[in-house]
Amino acid sequence: MSVVSTVEWMPVESGLFSAVAYRAEVRQLYLRFHDGKIYRFFDCPVTVYNEFVEATSKARHFSQRIRNHFRYEMLRRGSSGNRRCANPQPSLAEQLEASVVLAKARAVQQPDIQGAQQWAGFNGLAQPMPLE
Fold it and tell me: How far is CA 14 from the centre of its chain?
């Protein structure tokens, strides 16, 4: 079993990241991006992990305190990438968030479709209706 599937992932609210994990015994920080990429950062102090979790802007904290400060490796490529790496299941929070986004998108699309069908001369078959 890979390390990626055994670490305890914590969902985070961020436009860039979906989850974070930390292994204190080896000082390794794990970051999972929304596109599925997973990176491991080596020799990362627990204070950096705690500050990341508490940061209002995870992306800003990452760029200022993590990126280019620690040796790292990519463990998993994004959605278009390497299928050989571990594929952790999305957390319940991520699944619920995706479900809500989908429901909102469908709710927005439905009135648009109905409005288009009522648009002058449209009968649902992409042919104009005869004028009376």
Answer: 8
pLDDT, tens digit, for every residue of 36-91?
999 999 999 999 999 999 999 999 999 999 999 999 999 988 775 444 444 455 56
Number of Cβ atoms within 10 Å of the Cβ of 14 = 19
Q: Above 50 in pLDDT, residue 110?
A: yes
Instruction: Return phi, psi of residue 33, to 5°.
Output: -85, 160
Cβ contact 77:85 at 8 Å:
yes
Contact 19, 55 (CB under 8 A): no
Contact 116, 122 (CB under 8 A): yes
> Are 48 and 37 spatial neighbours (Cβ–Cβ below 8 Å)?
no
